[in-house]
């Protein structure tokens, strides 16, 4: 008697052959499409004689107090992005700026809480921050005001720095 072929008899093999391409496919190709860099955005402002707040562009040099290299080295900007220490609760920056030809120096102390979050195997983790306070040496900077205390991306202005 001749045995008839039945597709149902080989269902495990068919199921494996259907799922094998899906299981072996690397969806991200090893790339991470989630932004894992988080920095505090700070913008420079002046209040003019009519008490109007205006953004200002000036030459700056920004350097971490414990760092050898500068984040910004004599560039003309109206805002800066400052990475915060992921394992400490305070990050300090030396900010040198000039609205004219005279250079002024100030120290900006940023106090923050850190939150670590695992994203994926490709991306790893991300550390976001909550700003708990600011302090400046007030040599040239008049004030620093927190606009958004949640530092979760680089697209926001979190702090306004007021200059004379």
* Overall shape: elongated
Secondary structure: number of strands: 11
- Amount of beta strand: over 45%
Radius of gyration: 26 Å
For the largest sheet, list the strands in their spatial order: 4-3-6-7-8-10
| Helical residues, percent | under 10%
Roughly what is the average pLDDT, rounded to an integer?
84
Strand-pairing-aware structural class: mainly beta
Order of helices and strands: HEEEEEEEEEEE
Straight-line distance between termini: 101 Å
Topology:
Blueprint lengths: L10 H14 L14 E9 L5 E3 L2 E7 L5 E8 L1 E5 L6 E9 L5 E17 L3 E13 L6 E4 L3 E2 L7 E5 L1
Parallel strand pairs: 1-11
Antiparallel strand pairs: 1-2, 1-5, 3-4, 3-6, 6-7, 7-8, 8-10, 9-11
Structural account:
The structure is a single chain. With 164 residues, the protein is mainly beta. Helices cover 9% and strands 50% of the residues. The protein contains 1 helix and 11 strands. It has one helix at 11-24; strands at 39-47, 53-55, 58-64, 70-77, 79-83, 90-98, 104-120, 124-136, 143-146, 150-151, 159-163. The strands form 2 sheets. It has a 6-stranded antiparallel sheet, with no helix packed on it. Strands 1, 2, 5, 9 and 11 form a 5-stranded mixed sheet that branches. It is elongated, with a radius of gyration of 26 Å.
